[in-house]
Write a structure and sequence with these properties.
Blueprint (H helix, E strand, L loop, with lengths): L21 E4 L3 H22 L6 E5 L8 E4 L3 E2 L6 E13 L7 E8 L10 E7 L2 E8 L4 E7 L9 E7 L14 E9 L6 H22 L5 H15 L7 H29 L5 E4 L7 H18 L9 E3 L4 H17 L6 E2 L8 E2 L7 H4 L3 H7 L1 H27 L3 H12 L2 H7 L8 H17 L2 H17 L3 H16 L5 H11 L1 H21 L8 H6 L18 H7 L13 H13 L4 H17 L3 E4 L2 E4 L1 H8 L13 H15 L8 H17 L7 E3 L4 H7 L6 E5 L5 H10 L16 H7 L5 H10 L1 E7 H7 L3 H6 L4 E6 L3 E6 L6
Parallel strand pairs: 19-20
Antiparallel strand pairs: 1-12, 2-11, 3-5, 4-5, 5-10, 5-11, 6-9, 6-11, 7-8, 7-10, 13-18, 14-15, 16-17, 20-22, 21-22
Helix pairs in contact: 1-2, 1-3, 2-3, 2-4, 3-16, 4-16, 5-9, 6-8, 6-9, 6-25, 8-9, 9-10, 9-12, 9-22, 10-22, 12-13, 12-14, 13-14, 13-15, 13-16, 14-20, 19-22, 19-23, 20-22, 24-25
C-alpha cells in the first residue's frame, strides 16, 4: 500500500525487495539447454524460410514501370502501331537497374531509331554501364531487342546505371531533341545465386546466438528468449526474405553489423562487471496476481461490451466506416499470404501496377501484422483485427494500472487510471480505423520498464523498456521518435543524479535497453530507410493544421458517448476525428486532486511537465488566437528535424497527455482506505464517473465481405489492372484486390511511390483523354466508377465517358458502373 504522506517514498523496490526480490544465482543447466534449443530452432527456421529461388531478372517498361529510375527521357507516349508505351531519349538517358547476383548479367534493350533513318544507315547508340563504355549498338528504325553481356566485375550490387548516348534529331513539328525510342530494358543474371540463402541463415543464426549470450550475460531471464524470437521474426520477414538480390544483400550486411554490435556489448559488459554472469530472478507471490487478474477481467468485459455493437459478427465486420480499417485488414492478410509463400511482405507487386509498391511507404505495423500472424492463418484477417483491438484495450488498461502501482498508487487509483487510459476517447477514436495507433500498450510497457530500472537498476527492467520501445515502433512509427522524447524527460526528472555511485552501478544494465531496441528496430527500419532515402517526407502544411488539436478539444465531451454524444456533436460540430482528445472530466478532476495532494513529489512534477510538453506539441505547428498566429515547437520539428518532420498528425501526442493524467488521477486516490467515509464516497463517485465517461457507442461498422463487382472481376479473362474512381487512393483499394484477383493502378499509404504523383493526378481525371492514355500506358483494363460519389465530384462524367470510343460499359450494379478499355492492356 502506498504511503499516505508521499507516494514517492513507497515505490516498489525502493526501500526493500518485498515486491520483487532480486536473487542472484548461476543459470541452471536447463536454461543452457533451452538456449541451445533456441539457437537450433533459429537455424532451422532461417534455412527453411530463406532457401527459395530469387528473382533473376528485372524488366523495366519504359513509359510505364520506370518511375523514379529513369532520367534523360522525354515524356511517355504510346505507339500507334502496337499500343506499347515508350519514351524518346535525349542525347543521354539513364535507367537504374538492380543487380541479381555477383555473376555475369545479360542486358536486353528494346530500341528503335527514328523512322527517318534509312535501314542501311543505323543510328549509333553508345551503351555505358556504371559510366564505363560497354558497347555501341547499330539501332535500326524497326523495333528490336539488342542483347549485351555485362561482366560480373562491372556489376554493382547497390544499383547499375545503364546509360544510352546518341546523336539527336528533330522531327518536323516537334521542337524536342530526339535520340532513339526506348521500349524496355531488362537486366538478367546468367546464374542463380544459390549460396546466398545459406549465408543469410548462418548470419541470422549467428546474430541470434550473439544476442542470446549478450542478454544472458546481462542477467536477463526468460525475457531473453522472447527478445531473440522477436529478433528472428522481424529479421526473416523484412528484407532477408525479399526476392530481390540487392535487398537480401543489404539485409545480410545489416545482420552482420548487428552481430558485431552484440559481440561488442558482451565484451563491454563483461569487462565492466568484471565478474561471472548471473541471472536475476524475482520471487513469485500468488497474492500479487489477484489485482492484475481482476483488472484484466474487467477490461476484457468492457472491451467486448464496447465493440459488440460495432461487430455483430467479428469474422465479418470491423469497427468504423470503410476506410483505413480495411487497409489494415488487408495488411494482416497480405502478411499471411506473403509469409506462406516465403517472401517478404515489404514489397507488394500488384499495387501501383506495374511498378509495385514498397509497403514501407506506409505503416508495416508488424506488432499487429506479424505477431497476429498465427491467428490470421487460423481464423482470417477480420477476426484477427477485432481480437487485436480487444487485446490492446486489455493490455493498455492492465499495464497502466501496473505502472500506477509502481509509482506508488493504491489499487483503486491504479484501476481508475487503467480504465481511464485504456478506454479513453483518443483510443476509441483510433479503434475506428487506425489499427497502427492502438498499440498503446507498448508505450506504457516502455515506461513501466523505465520506472522499474530507475528504482532497481535492474537489467531485466532495462530489457523490458527496450522491448516496449521496439514494439511501440513496430506498432507505428509515430511512437518511434516521440516515445524516446517522453522517456528522456521521464529519466531526466526521475533519476537520482546526485548519487554518483548509481550512475556507475547502473551502467551495464542501462546498456541493455538500447541493445534490445536496436536488435528489434534495425531490421524493421531498414525497408523504411531504403524506401524514403533521399526523398522529402514532409506532409503538406495544411494537413498538419487539420490534424492538430486545439486547447478546447481537451474539454470537449465525447461525441461517441452513449448518453450525451449527440449533444456534444451539436455544441462542437467542427471537431474532426483527430481532435477527439479529451481525457474525461472525472479523470481530470482526480488528476487535479493528485497533483495538489502530491505537489511536492518528484513524480507529480515529472508527470505535469511531460503532460505540458505533449499538450503543446499536440497543438501542431501553430496556435491561432483570433487574428494572431503563434508558432509552436512542432513547427521547428517540421522544418528542421529530419525524423520528426514526417509527423503529420501532431494531435496523436495527446495520448501521452492521457497517460500522465491517468497516473496523476491514480495518485489522487492514494490512501483511499484511510479516508473519511464522506471522502471515500466522493472517491467512489469519481471512479464511477471514469467508468461512465468511457461508455462510447459509435454508429459505424464496416463489412469485410467481397463486393459483387469484385466477384465479377475475378471471373473475367485476362490480367489487366483496375482503377477505381473517384476514391482511387484509399485503403479499400488494397483490400478488395484480394477478391478481384487483379492488380490495381493505385493503392494507399502515408506516402506515394517515387515518381507516381503525375500518373495518379492524371488517372483521377477520368474520363479525360489524358486519363485514358495513362490507363492504357500503365496496363489498365477496367475502370470501376462509384456512381454516387462521381456524380457529386464530377457532374457530367457519364456524357464524357460515352464520347470515348475506346470505353465499353461491361458491368453495373447498385453501386458501381464498370468500363473496359477495348484496346486491352499492353504492359
Amino acid at each position: 500500500m502506498a504511503s499516505a504522506t508521499n507516494p514517492s517514498h513507497s515505490e516498489p523496490g525502493a526501500a526493500g525487495t518485498d515486491d520483487a526480490a532480486a536473487v542472484r544465482y548461476a543459470p541452471p543447466r536447463f536454461n543452457l539447454i533451452l538456449d541451445a534449443v533456441m539457437v537450433i530452432a533459429v537455424a532451422i527456421t532461417s534455412f527453411v524460410f530463406l532457401n527459395r529461388p530469387l528473382d533473376t531478372q528485372h524488366l523495366v517498361i519504359i513509359g510505364a514501370s520506370d518511375r523514379g529510375i529513369a532520367t534523360g527521357f522525354h515524356g511517355a507516349e504510346i505507339s500507334q502501331a502496337d499500343g506499347r508505351p515508350f519514351r524518346w531519349t535525349t542525347a543521354e538517358a539513364t535507367v537504374r537497374l538492380p543487380a541479381h547476383g555477383v555473376t555475369d548479367h545479360l542486358l536486353m534493350l528494346r530500341l528503335a531509331a527514328p523512322t527517318g533513318v534509312a535501314p542501311s544507315m543505323p543510328q549509333a547508340v553508345a551503351v555505358d554501364l556504371n559510366r564505363t563504355h560497354l558497347a555501341t549498338l547499330p539501332v535500326l528504325p524497326a523495333p528490336r531487342v539488342y542483347r549485351l553481356l555485362a561482366p560480373h566485375h562491372r556489376i554493382a550490387i547497390a544499383g547499375n546505371d545503364i546509360t544510352l548516348r546518341t546523336a539527336t534529331t528533330r522531327v518536323p513539328g516537334d521542337r524536342r531533341d530526339l535520340g532513339v525510342v526506348a521500349f524496355a530494358v531488362t537486366c538478367a543474371a546468367l546464374n542463380e545465386t544459390a549460396w546466398l540463402p545459406s549465408v543469410q541463415a548462418a548470419a541470422v543464426t549467428g546474430a541470434a546466438w550473439a544476442l542470446l549470450i549478450a542478454l544472458r550475460s546481462s542477467g536477463i531471464g526468460a525475457l531473453r528468449w522472447i527478445v531473440v524470437a522477436l529478433f528472428t521474426l522481424i529479421s526473416l520477414s523484412m528484407r532477408h526474405s525479399d526476392l530481390r538480390f540487392a535487398h537480401r544483400w543489404e539485409a545480410l550486411l545489416l545482420t552482420l553489423g548487428l552481430a558485431t554490435v552484440f559481440a561488442l556489448f558482451l565484451l563491454i559488459t563483461a569487462r565492466w562487471k568484471g565478474s561471472e554472469a548471473s541471472v536475476e530472478r524475482s520471487t513469485f507471490n500468488a497474492h500479487h496476481l489477484a489485482f492484475p487478474l481482476i483488472t484484466t477481467g474487467v477490461a476484457t468485459l468492457l472491451a467486448v461490451l464496447l465493440l459488440a455493437p460495432l461487430t455483430p459478427d467479428p469474422a465479418r465486420f470491423v469497427p468504423g466506416p470503410p476506410g483505413d480499417n480495411l487497409e489494415y485488414v488487408w495488411k494482416l492478410q497480405w502478411f499471411a499470404d506473403a509469409i506462406a509463400e516465403r517472401r517478404s511482405p515489404t514489397f507488394v507487386p500488384y499495387l501501383f501496377y506495374p511498378t509495385g509498391y514498397e509497403l514501407a511507404y506506409s505503416e508495416l505495423t508488424p506488432a499487429h501484422t506479424l505477431l497476429g500472424l498465427p491467428l490470421t492463418l487460423l481464423a482470417g484477417s477480420t477476426l484477427t483485427y477485432n481480437v487485436l483491438i480487444v487485446i490492446s484495450f486489455v493490455l493498455t488498461t492492465l499495464l497502466t494500472a501496473l505502472l500506477a502501482e509502481r509509482l506508488g498508487a493504491g489499487r483503486l487509483g491504479a484501476f481508475a487510471a487503467g480504465i481511464g487510459v485504456g478506454f479513453c476517447l483518443w483510443r476509441y477514436q483510433h479503434t475506428l480505423g487506425q489499427m497502427n495507433m492502438i498499440g498503446t500498450q507498448w508505450t506504457v510497457l516502455a515506461l513501466y520498464g523505465l520506472e522499474g530500472f530507475i528504482r532497481r537498476r535492474s537489467s531485466s527492467d532495462a530489457a523490458l523498456m527496450g522491448t516496449g520501445v521496439a514494439l511501440a515502433a513496430w506498432s507505428s512509427w509515430y511512437y518511434g521518435p516521440t516515445l524516446w522524447l517522453i522517456m528522456a524527460l521521464w529519466l531526466l526528472m526521475r533519476w537520482p543524479w546526485k548519487e554518483t555511485r548509481s550512475l556507475r552501478t547502473a551502467g551495464p544494465a542501462a546498456l541493455t535497453a538500447p541493445l534490445v531496441a536496436l536488435a528489434l528496430i534495425a531490421p524493421y527500419a531498414q525497408p523504411t530507410i531504403q524506401a524514403l532515402r533521399g526523398g522529402d517526407t514532409r506532409h503538406e502544411y495544411t494537413s498538419l493544421l487539420s490534424l492538430s488539436a486545439r486547447p478546447l478539444d481537451y474539454l470537449t465531451p465525447s461525441r461517441y458517448h452513449a448518453i450525451w454524444g449527440a449533444w456534444s456533436a451539436q455544441i462542437a460540430p467542427d471537431t474532426a476525428g483527430a481532435q477527439l482528445v479529451a481525457p474525461g472530466f472525472a479523470l481530470l478532476a482526480l488528476a487535479g486532486v493528485g497533483a495538489w495532494r502530491w505537489r511536492r513529489s518528484p513524480i507529480t512534477w515529472t508527470l505535469l511537465i511531460i503532460a505540458g510538453v505533449c499538450f503543446v506539441l499536440s497543438l501542431g505547428p501553430e496556435l491561432r488566437l483570433g487574428d494572431r498566429t503563434i508558432p509552436l515547437p512542432a513547427l521547428l520539428a517540421y522544418e528542421h528535424i529530419p525524423v520528426l518532420r514526417s509527423i503529420r498528425a501532431w494531435s496523436r501526442m495527446a495520448f501521452y497527455v492521457q497517460i500522465c493524467v491517468g497516473l496523476l488521477a491514480a495518485l489522487g486516490l492514494t490512501g483511499f482506505a484511510q479516508w473519511r467515509r464522506a471522502w471515500q464516497a466522493l472517491g467512489v463517485v469519481a471512479v464511477c464517473g471514469v467508468l461512465l465517461e468511457v461508455a462510447h457507442a459509435a454508429p459505424w461498422s464496416a463489412s469485410t465481405a467481397p463486393r459483387p463487382v469484385d466477384r465479377w472481376l475475378a471471373t473475367q479473362p485476362g490480367s489487366g489492372a483496375t482503377l477505381q474512381v473517384p476514391d482511387s487512393f484509399s485503403g479499400a483499394i488494397e483490400y478488395y484486390a484480394l477478391f478481384s484477383k487483379r492488380p490495381s493502378l493505385t493503392g494507399y499509404g502515408t506516402f506515394e511511390p517515387a515518381g507516381a504523383t503525375a500518373d495518379l493526378v492524371w488517372l483521377r481525371e477520368f474520363p479525360s483523354e489524358r486519363a485514358l492514355t495513362t490507363l492504357r500506358r500503365l496496363g489498365g483494363e477496367y475502370i470501376l466508377v462509384r456512381r454516387n460519389a462521381m456524380d457529386r465530384e464530377r457532374p457530367g462524367w457519364r456524357e464524357r465517358a460515352t464520347q470515348q470510343p475506346e470505353l465499353a460499359q461491361v458491368y453495373e450494379d447498385d453501386e458501381f458502373t464498370v468500363y473496359r478499355i477495348v484496346t486491352g492492356p499492353h504492359p
